Amino acid sequence: MVMKTHGFRLTLTMGLVLCFAPRLPAPLIYHPGQGWETEGQDKAEETSREQLKKGERYEEDGKLEEARDTYRTLVKTWPLSPNAPEGQFRYAAMLYKLEEFQHSFKEFQTCAEKYPDSEHFDETLKYQYDIACLFLAGERQRLFNKIPTLPSMDKAVEMFEQVIKNGPYSKVAPLCQLKIGFAREKQHQWSDAVKAYQELIRRYPKSDLADDAQFQIGYANMMASKEADYDQTAANRAITGFQDYITKYPKSEKIEQAQENITRLKTEQARGLMEVAQFYDREQKYDAALVYYNSVVQKFPDTEIARRASARADEIKRHQYEMISKEPVKETPPGPEVSPEVPSENTTTNSVTNPVL
User: Taking a C-beta distance cutoff of 8 angstroms, is the pair 156, 179 a contact?
Assistant: First the structure.
């Protein structure tokens, strides 16, 4: 029985080793003027132009992996060729189509840094933006470009920031700044989200996204006010954010939603003050309770909660008046009788004499 168990374990171990064993690289062959290549790999063409055409033919035939390898050979073999920028761009694009997104972003970064004057520069930034959006949506990082790990909003932010750095005044730069705020919202890092939206408005005040950023400032502060204990400071900032949105962008499509959010926030503020007032009320600390009931009435007039606060405040005042009225008037108790002082016979009375004329 022991031998059978040992044999089974050995067989299982060998099976796992064979399944996960790395593939051994094929022998490398050196070609003068072209560099090293793997045995069995397509031989590089005589010129970079011919190599580029070869990659294009693979693309047309839908052979994306072959096209990827062909373009990679081009940029490695002829890095200073006039066709190198095109080869680098197409190499990164093939990685994107093969869903090797993290690797693709890196190769597009090479395009942006080495060939900033390329005709594909704006397209490069758009690809990078799209990849960053995938990471924002939950795309996983990969170790060694192969092993998936957990999604990372920090990685998405890093990518968006890199795109902005590559092209601070490109078409996608304001979008990247907005998405940085979205990523921080997903992390519940509300203050960082607000900073991202404020940065968008500061750097791109004329962007079509400026109104969206202003709305999100109100929204992020509103969400911050709901976490843990109700935060009156964050609620006030949220109300200010939505009011600024309504004032600065009166024709924006979210005006009605901003107004509803302001009403909801004010209701929450009133409810918070009402709860404090009721706490003191239960503790029979009526003077403190009156302070908060009156605050509700003053700050949120014409609301149902203000009417309730006013009614309860009147009850407390009436009760206090009745208690004062029922207290007996305290009379001053009589003091001890004091007899009039009689001058003694030895007391000399001073008299006023007329002056001698």
Answer: yes
Measured CA to CA, the distance from residue 211 to residue 200 in angstroms comes to: 10
Cα distance between residue 37 and residue 300, in whole Å: 77
DSSP-derived 3-state class of residue 256: helix
Alpha-carbon gap, residue 133 to 128, rounded angstroms? 9
Contact 209, 175 (CB under 8 A): yes
Q: In sequence order, what are the residues at sequence separation of 6 or more whose Cβ sits closer than 8 angstroms to the Cβ of residue 54?
A: 42, 45, 70
Taking the model in full, what pTM does it have?
Answer: 0.75
> Maximum Cα–Cα distance for the chain, whole Å?
156
- C-alpha 185/C-alpha 156 separation (Å) is 13
Tell me if 57 sits within 8 A of 83, measured CB to CB.
no
Q: What is the CA radius of gyration of the chain?
A: 41
pLDDT in tens, 247-286: 999 999 999 999 999 999 998 888 888 999 999 999 999 9
Three-class secondary structure of residue 350 per DSSP: coil
